[in-house]
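Sample intake sheet
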Amino acid sequence: MKEVKTGIYKRIIIRLPEKELTIPVKNLESKIKELNILIKERSQDLEKRGKRENIERLKKICKTGNLLMRG
C-alpha cells in the first residue's frame, strides 16, 4: 500500500493479485469495508480449494492403500 498525492487529494494505492485499487482518502472507510469483504471471500475460496485438494489426495492414498493391502 502506498500513498500518492494527485492534485489536491491524496490517494492510496493498494495492489491485490486480481486488481489494483486507487482510493481517494475521503472514501477510505467504505473502501476498507469492501476490501475486508473481498479478503474474507478470497480466504474462504482458498480454504475450500485446500479442502478439495486434501480430499482428492486422501482418495488417492486410500486407493493405493487398498491395492497394497490386497497385494
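Comment: The helical segments are 28-70. Residues 2-70 form one domain.
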